[in-house]
């Protein structure tokens, strides 16, 4: 059954701006100044409020704002990933574990370099050095696997599920989703235990599938966050061939599909992006090279950046790319990378472009990436409002 029956549905990628109250509660919890019971009460109230706001703004497929993925700063590009550290056993902070060690790469034998050494940053070094906002700062220290990793986040994911399902009751939302990390992105921490990178990837798959199952067992949609699939291209230096890169990421795709084996496809969507930092992105891999790999992932929906000026033209890729039967796309039609709020008419036009190539029944209008921690909360609200207004305009013309 197509996802749209009488109108274009709307959603977003996941992260929404945290309130001052929630950020302060996260900081007090980490410092031991707030009891777990009091924190959970605040978290529940904040999730209910953000779900109500999404519905009021006209968002159909809502989430918990990723409020269970802790942020203590107003700007945070990494909470989508760093939340996993506290939910995984076998990880430790070690003195000799710098994040993403710089490793030389050769064609056919590729290795990630560091964020600081990525090719886009090297091309615009003075810009990245002068403007703090375009640099990616996640955490000060990264853990490494020093023993077999295991999932210890049962109480945290149960809280995520409980808060969202409770907030959905009587809200009027179409449905709800919760974002979770992919094995490929999770495995970017240090490995001091597993014999091979592939072993480490599949260990992460075994860990994360427990989180995936907890989400879908509750009837919620699982969104897999995996920027490593596309973003990793910029973090291999020198630039590899496309064929070598696609071979390089195949282990990550295989590990993810393994983790999804027992997860209902109809409750799964996959998010592809080129990194949420604010920068030129001149070294982004073109979508045409990665699209078929994306479609090989066992999900029903696929979300991807399509509104920012580096990727807005790529809707035309779908003219020569067949969307498998029963699948739908969730293109970004408003961007997280600019403070300019898209006009609803532009949003409608972007939706109509995608509808013209894959069918109006198969397009859910979304944001490029998470808005939380990337733009000012008031601008985020305005963008979500424009998103729903644009979808309404497109629906009038398409249905």
Keywords:
three-stranded mixed beta sheet, Cobalamin-independent methionine synthase II family protein, seven-stranded parallel beta sheet, 10 strands, UROD/MetE-like_sf, Met_Synth_C/arc, globular, 13 helices, TIM Barrel, alpha/beta, 399 residues
Write a structural description.
The strands form 2 sheets. A 7-stranded parallel sheet has the order 1-4-6-7-8-9-10. The chain has a 3-stranded mixed sheet with strand order 2-3-5. Helix 11 links the parallel strand 7 (268-272) and strand 8. It has 13 helices and 10 strands. The longest helix is centred in the C-terminal third of the chain and has 22 residues, at 377-398. The protein has helices at 20-31, 36-56, 79-82, 119-123, 125-130, 154-168, 183-186, 197-217, 228-231, 242-259, 287-295, 344-358, 377-398; strands at residues 61-63, 88-93, 143-151, 175-181, 190-191, 221-225, 268-272, 301-304, 328-334, 366-367. The radius of gyration is 20 Å and the shape is globular. 46% of the residues are buried.
Overall CATH architecture: Alpha-Beta Barrel
Radius of gyration: 20 Å
Largest sheet: 7 strands, parallel
User: What is the CATH T-level topology?
Assistant: TIM Barrel
Average pLDDT rating: 92
Q: Class by helix and strand content?
A: alpha/beta
Choose one word for the global shape. Answer: globular
**Tally of helical runs:** 13
Sheet with most strands: strand arrangement: 1-4-6-7-8-9-10
Topology, please?
Blueprint lengths: L19 H12 L4 H21 L4 E3 L15 H4 L5 E6 L25 H5 L1 H6 L12 E9 L2 H15 L6 E7 L1 H4 L3 E2 L5 H21 L3 E5 L2 H4 L10 H18 L8 E5 L14 H9 L5 E4 L23 E7 L9 H15 L7 E2 L9 H22 L1
Parallel strand pairs: 1-4, 3-5, 4-6, 6-7, 7-8, 8-9, 9-10
Antiparallel strand pairs: 2-3
Helix pairs in contact: 1-2, 2-6, 6-8, 8-10, 12-13
